[in-house]
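Entry 14. Structure prediction run on the chain below.
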Amino acid sequence: MSDEIVPGYTATRRALHAVAEQVLAGALHRATGRIGLRATPDGFGTPWFSGRRLRVAGVDLVVEDGDAVRRAPLTTLGEAAAFAGIEPGAPDVYPPATEPAPDAPLALDPTAAAAVHDWFRVVADALAVWRDEVADRQPNEVQLWPEHFDLALVAGKVNYGGSPGDDGHAAPYAYVGPWRTDGLVGEYWNEPFGASRPAAEVDGPDDVLAFFRRAPLVSSE
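Output returned:
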């Protein structure tokens, strides 16, 4: 039996990951040297750069050039890049996590895509509050990292965030990942990288926050 939360979820998540890495982050990096993306109300996208923004809304690519907005269905990486007026390709600062297959059809299901976007919204809302709560730990900006396709921040050398799933997790999950994991003991630490909590056990941002708050204090020095 599949562990997918909705039919087509894994294929859709992988397709969205490819768009994030091969189109959005690639364009952002070539223009600015940065790779961090952002969650948006209906998906995810780049921050504004060079007077424009590229984002995914549902299963569409939205290109904003100043006040001009264009929108087209996501079909292939090559067509998405052409619509945005860029060359496809991942940032060249790490080994790409997705295949550079510009002509391969993107397997996108609208219901599954909505599930990915909904989870990012939950995590984004939780991280916005958490960032204020841990201000003394010098948290960085909440970003969606294209190599892992997760939304996270770092505070006190500990990663806090949420993933829509990966090769080891079919469904979305929230996580806490200390930079150093040696010496972690206790039932809270249920992953090699630290701790996770499945989205199925989370009822909104408050539950994600509660999971973050229960993290035992760790030393990452």
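The mean pLDDT is 95.
Filed with the rest of this week's runs.
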